[in-house]
Each structure stands twice: as C-alpha cells, then as structure tokens.
Write a structure and sequence with these properties.
- The structure is a single chain.
- The protein has a seven-stranded antiparallel sheet.
- It starts with 16 loop residues before the first strand and ends with a strand.
- The protein is an alpha+beta fold and 464 residues long.
C-alpha cells in the first residue's frame, strides 16, 4: 500500500492520532494538527504543544500513527521511526504558513505556532481490519472525473477565452467568476485586488453571496486571506468549521478594525476554503478565494490546477490595469482632459434629472476620516471617496456630467501615483457601492476611458 493512495487521510478532516512510549514502555496518545506527506517513505508531523511526545521520542524513536479516510471511514496504521526535527526551510515554512493563518483568525498569533516539523521514516503501512463492520466500496482517487468533454486543458481554455474576450476590468472579473462556476462548479468565490497606496486588499467582485461585500478590506497578513497575500502561496483548508470557524471569526476581526463598515462576504458555515494568490512575477495583483460547505470539495488536484488558472487570471487583470493606465497617459490632451478644478468651500444642492423634485439624498464627506456617508449610512472611503467628491464638486460648479479617466488621474489632490495606478478598479468599486447604497447617483461608462455622472435626485453635499 502506497502513502499516495491515502491522500484523503492527509487532509486532516478526521484528526490523526500518534502513539509513543518512553524508555520504560509507558504509552502516550496525542492528536495531531498536521500530517504532511513528503514522499512514499517519509511524513512530517507538526510539533506545537506535544511535550510528552517529544520526550518519548528522545528516549524511543518508534511511533505509531493512525489515520482515517474521511469518505470511507477506513483506518490505516503507519509504523514510524523518528529521524529529525526541522525548524527552518521550505517544509517548515509550508507547514508554518497554515498554522499562522489559523492563529491569525483565532487571535492566537505568537501562541499557536509551529515549533518544528518532525520528520519520520515510514516503516510500514497497513489497513486496520475490522475497523468497520461493513466497509463501503472505496471511491476513486482525488482527481475529479470531468464528464463529457471536460478536461484540464479544456478548463484552462474555458477560462483563458473569457479573459481574452473581456473588454474592461469589470467584465473580466465577472467573466472569470462565472467561468469558475460553470466549469468547476465553484458556487462561492471572491476576488480581492491589492491597493498599493493603501497597502490593503480590497474586495472588488464576488459571486454566490446575498451581498457582494465590494469594498471590504483585508490587511496584508490578516487572517487566511492576508496570510496568502503576504506569503504569495496558495492555502487550502478542509473541515474548516471545526478548525477555525472561519466566517464568524473574519466578521469578528472586521468589527475590531477600521473597516467594519463593509463586512467581507462569506458562508456562515463553510467547510472548505481555498485562497489563491494572484501574482505576476514579484508583483502582487490580488487574491482569489473559493469556499464550499463540502469538507472535501477542494483536493490536491485543485491546488495544482488552480495555481495555473490563477496565473492566467493574474496576467489578465495586470494586463487590463496596465493597458488602461497606458491609454490614459498616451491620450492626446483636449479640453476634457485638464485637471479638475480646486474644491470649493460651500456646497449648494446638486440637482439634475426628472426625479430631482421628488427625491433627495444627503452626502456627508468626513475629511479627517476620508469617508463619505449617504443618508446616514457609510458609502465609501479613501481615494474612491475623494474621486466622487471631486466629481460632484465639478458638476456643481460647471454643470458638467461627462468626464475622462485622464483628467481625474491628473488631479494631484487625489493622491494617485503618477503612472500605472489601478484607477479602473477604483471606479468599479465606486460604481458598485453607489448601486447598492445610492442608485439615484450613478457613474456610467460611455466610452473607453470616459464616463458620465448621472443624478436622478437632488444631492445635498456637506463637508465636515
């Protein structure tokens, strides 16, 4: 029997158990946080709090490990010999990353951590007979069977085709999430893009949730998503509900930070989560997150394959961002591409559209917090808030409703970098937030690099 045939046992859905004895033969039993498959002859166990196990291994290097298949419930027994403990290196980093992500979610950073990766030689593997009264037929291996014409190559083609056909960043993100649902049956997905100025990940698109959560922010290094962004490596969690109560914890963390206004979307009872860093070389573009209620929804096959898909998505996003920035820089100056005028000190109501006489909204810009509230509810903050306020001021001052990306980018007061800023994603974020919180005020694309400010109500502007 090969260790690779037991790949489901290594997912940790049912905790494994290790038995050791001291020099006098007194046994000790402990549950394991991680059992990591190195190759067909070696495994690594995570050492965190196993003081008695460590003392026993120092006296007697022999151990017995019991693992259970989460689908068939068949138990397997591995006879082990302790070889060494590693406290640095690629294996240690890989195992430590998962534990650090759990600790970040549970408030145990610095306490719940990996002390060492204990390497064991596997002397034998045996099936535990009689463990089940009537063992069900074992299902095939981890690799999913894709029905009909589905295959790995066709799946890559499916996603790549939608990326290539997208005309802008917003349609690209929507097409990618739709393709993941249609082809891979990923029903709950989120895309967060990296905002270099703010140093945070910002939710820009989601699929399968009641509320989009667009605008929700995650600090680099915060929780599972922030850890994936910091380390630039994929993480896959199984049996998540019993592992770290992901959804409830991320909401608790959000409420303790300054971005509690927009909760991160997520299932209330996820069992599997996979977070994939979107990178181009050393450049962090964002993070793609998929979750499911099935505890064995994501397998090792998904890890390898979706890293390839993630690279395609990252390249598509980066290309769209860079192209929009280059087109804005290369555009010929015209009367519409001058910088916006300086802000005024007083604001009269902005009134346009047929519904202006009957509808009215109050927008308050809190300058110190760099945030806008509409009718008492949080709308947006940071650069998108400054953009919206500047557009409203310009419309009030001149009556204009048509604008270009270039003229907004030329406005130094907005704090945009001089080249290749992800300006398009800021407009996407602003459009989504207005649709959700103030549909009478909209930003509508009219041509490549151009948009209009459409108001169907009286807008009272107050700056504090």
């Amino acid at each position: 029997m090969r260790l690779s045939d037991l790949s489901r046992c290594f997912q940790g859905i049912i905790p494994s158990v290790i038995a050791t004895c001291d020099a006098g033969g007194t046994p000790n039993i402990a549950y394991l946080s991680q059992v990591y498959l190195i190759d067909e002859r070696h495994v690594a166990l995570s050492r965190q709090f196993f003081n008695k196990t460590q003392r026993n291994l120092d006296e007697n290097p022999l151990a017995c490990l019991e693992m259970v298949d989460p689908l068939t419930f068949q138990a397997y027994r591995l006879r082990l010999t302790f070889l060494r403990s590693e406290k640095s290196g690629p294996l240690f980093d890989q195992m430590s990353m998962r534990i650090e992500a759990i600790a970040a979610h549970t408030g145990m950073t610095g306490i719940f951590k990996l002390i060492g990766s204990d390497i064991f030689e596997v002397r034998s593997v045996e099936k535990v007979e009689g463990f089940l009264t009537a063992a069900p037929a074992e299902s095939p291996g981890d690799a999913p069977t894709l029905d009909g014409r589905r295959s790995e190559v066709r799946g890559l083609q499916w996603v790549s085709d939608r990326i290539n056909r997208a005309c802008d960043l917003e349609s690209l993100l929507a097409a990618v999430l739709q393709a993941l649902q249609e082809y891979f049956y990923f029903s709950h997905t989120i895309v967060l893009l990296y905002d270099e100025i703010a140093g945070r990940l910002v939710t820009i698109a989601s699929r399968g949730y009641g509320q989009s959560g667009v605008g929700a922010e995650v600090e680099i290094g915060q929780g599972l998503i922030g850890t994936v962004a910091r380390e630039r490596r994929l993480l896959r969690f199984k049996n998540l509900d019993s592992d770290l109560r992901y959804s409830r914890t991320i909401r608790r963390e959000s409420s303790e930070t300054g971005c509690a206004e927009i909760p991160l979307p997520g299932l209330s009872d996820p069992q599997s989560v996979m977070a994939i860093p979107l990178t181009v070389g050393n450049r962090l573009v964002g993070v793609l997150v998929a979750e499911d209620r099935d505890p064995v929804r994501f397998s090792e096959w998904h890890e390898a394959y979706l890293e390839i898909i993630g690279n395609q998505i990252a390249l598509g996003i980066a290309r769209m961002i860079d192209r929009a920035a280059e087109e804005a820089e290369a555009a010929e100056p015209d009367p519409a591409t001058r910088p916006l005028a300086p802000p005024t000190t007083a604001h009269a109501p902005v009134q346009t559209g047929k519904m202006a006489a009957t509808k009215q909204h109050t927008l308050i810009y809190y300058k110190n917090d760099d945030a806008i509230f509409v009718d008492g509810e949080y709308l947006i903050r940071n650069i998108p808030a400054r953009i919206l306020w500047k557009l409203l001021e310009e419309s009030q001052r001149t009556g204009r409703t048509e604008f270009s990306n270039r003229e907004v980018r030329l406005d130094e007061s907005l704090g945009l970098p001089p080249v290749k800023d992800n300006f398009e994603s800021r407009l996407i974020l602003l459009r989504h937030r207005l649709r959700e919180k103030c549909p009478d005020l909209q930003i509508v694309s009219t041509a490549r690099g151009r948009f209009s400010l459409q108001k169907n109500a009286t807008i009272d502007m107050i700056e504090r």
